[in-house]
Amino acid sequence: MRVPAKVNLYLGVGAPRPDGFHPLDTVYQAIGLYDDVTAGPADDWRVDVRTSDHVAAEALPPAGDNIVDRAARLLAAHHGVDVRGELRVDKDIPVAAGLAGGSADAAGALVALDRLWQLETPDDDLLRLAGELGSDVPFALVGGSAHGTGRGELVHRVPDEGGWWWVVVPFREGLSTPDVYRRFDQLHPDAPVVPTGPLAVLGALQDGDVRALARALHNDLQAAALDLRPELADVIAAGEEAGGLRGMVSGSGPTVVLLCGSGDEARQVAGTLAPSYDTVLIAPAPVAGAHLVVRA
Ligand SMILES: C[C@](O)(CO)[C@H](O)COP(=O)(O)OP(=O)(O)OC[C@H]1O[C@@H](n2ccc(N)nc2=O)[C@H](O)[C@@H]1O
Ligand SMILES: Nc1ncnc2c1ncn2[C@@H]1O[C@H](COP(=O)(O)OP(=O)(O)OP(=O)(O)O)[C@@H](O)[C@H]1O
Questions:
Q1: Is any ligand 1 atom within 6 A of the Cβ of residue 103?
Q2: Which secondary structure element, helix H or strand E, spans residue 256, and what is its range?
Q3: What DSSP designation does 205 have?
Q4: Where ATP is bound, by residue (predicted)?
Q5: Which of 171, 169, 99 is CA-nearest to residue 136?
């Protein structure tokens, strides 16, 4: 099953809660850059992870600690069944990139194992288990474009009339999400308890208006990511110079994404950037998630 990466079209971040997580007001969009997760029968439990050229295999955790192992244990415990099967993960989404690749794999594992073990887990339970695995995992189930609140785990699909195009510039060396949130706290000691909301982004999606969306894109974590990786500012500037309508850091970074006016414009921007960076990808959006959750 194909599971997509995400970008945050809007990421409002508030002051840390007592549990250490930050309240978010975000708009996720699933983009056409995928990992592939498949499950088959086996007497024991095996995970086989393979990576494409631009995915840093060395950044993945040791056997047994992959987020798909955690997803399998959580789903099995919820139903009181044994963890059994062979799970294969083909990774094309860069690791620790701000693209939620691990979250996509976790969502894919939940859905693939739910089918293999014939559990028919209700959607609400699946969403709750996903939220326990990580803040971005429920969105990976839902896909499309969605509003996220809480620590990001409460997701509701939103109307999106656009067919959008992104140029994606990932880097082999990732950024740690907790490090970026920590830097956010240092840079914004007076962050509001309730983060500001994404009205302009939601309106642009509803109208399918790419120029309005370009104006409204916003990421409260961008300053923290740029502080940790100043050279990302040059990538954003180069992408906008090459014809991208607007460049930004995706989520906690370090991937830079550029919103483009059309598929042709995206190909042109990617062609201009390609000689300067190891990897430059093109992704249409929005795309489907791992599982169409009826309620969302
Ligand atoms: C940056 C985003 O990708 C934006 O969507 C997410 O907020 C990150 O989501 P994620 O990788 O699924 O994060 P989790 O696995 O839930 O949490 C990892 C770590 O990120 C920090 N974290 C995450 C989410 C959140 N709302 N506040 C946080 O402070 C915490 O230090 C946490 O221990
Ligand atoms: N299947 C997996 N794919 C990628 N990373 C994984 C996986 N399982 C565990 N991890 C670990 O999770 C951490 C974050 O990986 P991930 O690729 O999800 O980050 P990300 O793209 O920045 O996600 P987010 O945008 O949700 O913060 C890495 O340290 C990585 O070792």
A1: yes
A2: strand 256-260
A3: H
A4: 94-104
A5: 99
Any idea which residues carry the catalytic annotation?
Answer: 6, 136
Tens-digit pLDDT profile for residues 259-273: 999 999 999 999 999
Q: What is the predicted pLDDT for the residue at 286?
A: 97
Which tokens go with 99?
Answer: 């693209």
> Is the backbone peptide bond immediately before 286 cis, with ω within 30 degrees of 0?
yes
Report whether 267 contacts 273 (CB < 8 A). no
User: Residue 204, annotated ligand binder?
Assistant: no
pLDDT tens, position by position, 164-213: 999 999 999 999 999 999 999 999 999 999 998 999 999 999 999 999 99
What pLDDT digit, counting tens, does each position of 58-87 carry? 999 998 999 999 999 999 999 999 999 999
- Contact residues for 52 (Cβ-Cβ < 8 A; gap 6+): 90, 91, 92
Task: Please work out whether the CB of residue 145 comes within 6 Å of at least one atom of ligand 1.
Answer: no
Name, in order, each residue with C-beta under 8 angstroms of 24's C-beta and a sequence gap of 6 or more: 11, 12, 13, 14, 135, 148, 149, 150, 151, 152, 195
CA 212 to chain centre: 22
| Ligand 2, atom 28: closest residue by C-alpha | 96
User: Which amino acid, 70?
Assistant: R
Q: Which fold has domain 1-296?
A: Ribosomal Protein S5; domain 2 (3.30.230)
Q: How far is the CA of 135 from the centre of ligand 1 (A)?
A: 6
To test the ligand 2 pocket, which listed residue (93, 95, 228) has its Cβ within 8 A of the most ligand atoms?
95
Q: Is the distance from CB of 242 to CB of 193 less than 8 angstroms?
A: no
3-state secondary structure 182-237: HHHHHHCCCCCCCCCCCHHHHHHHHHCCHHHHHHHCEECCHHHHHHHCCCHHHHHH
